[in-house]
Structure formats: C-alpha cells, structure tokens
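Problem: given the chain below (105 residues), write out its structure.
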Amino acid sequence: MTIPQLTTEQLEAARAAATEARRRRADLKSKVRTGEISLSQALDVAATDDVLAHVKVVDLLKALPRVGEKRAGVVMTRLDIAPNRRIRGLGRHQVAGLKAEFSER
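Solution.
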C-alpha cells in the first residue's frame, strides 16, 4: 500500500489538527498539575474525548503533585499498567485502582 500524496492544504490542515491535539493534551496535564481538576476528573474527561484519550498514563500521573517517575512506575506496576499505556487502553479495574490510589482524602 502506498502512502497517498497530500496537497499543501491537506498537509497544513493535518499540521494544524496535530498542533491543536498537542495543546489540548498539554492543557489537561497542566490542569492536573495545578490542581484545577483531579486525576479522577481527568480520567473521566479523557474517557469521552478521543484526543485526550491518547495521553500516556505515566505522563498524566507525573503531572500530579508529589508524583515523579519513581512513584508513577510503582503505582503502574502494582496496578498492572504497561509503561507505554495510554488512557484509552486502561481497563475499568485499572481506572478504578488509579482513582482509589489518588483520591483526595
């Protein structure tokens, strides 16, 4: 199968769409980082949004306060979440486990 040749307009539209998707994903992580929304809310929003569903779980966890590479890895290992998993690929038990782990007490 050959790659279709895109027109200049199609390439520009694809670039603009990709840039907008990156901005929306960065905005979600920024809101989690600042505490504007919780991890639970972020997971719920991403479940209904195709663009946000592509955020890597590890990146979303590292956006949380007091969660770095090590703690994110430990939690993901305990919940049996692969390091390259995206939100879309989480099972309901994994989502429930993340929500329970990082619920505000």
